[in-house]
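Batch job 17 of 40 flagged for manual review because the log was empty.
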Amino acid sequence: MDYLHSILLVLRNIEACLKTLVNQSVQPQQVLTDLNSEHWMDRQAVQAYLQISERTFFRLKKEGILQARRIGGRDYFYKSQLLAAMQISINKGRI
């Protein structure tokens, strides 16, 4: 089931890129570059990147601030979503 979920995530990324192509007349090479530049991070990488403890990590995940994608029984996070979550926290005065 996790395998099917990971395939579905890839297909959704491809769909989003194709919609970008259709709606914004972007060059295909740029869309492929954007798709490949999306970095995935596991739990340890997120903790190191955000410089947070394991407890804080799980609290942020439980609160929905960090949204994981489950692939092969492990949670992965988009680096761009981490940056967006941090920017929201900065804007709200939490950081």
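Reviewer: the log was empty due to a logging misconfiguration, but the result itself is present. The first strand starts at residue 40 and ends at 41. Unflagging and moving on to job 18.
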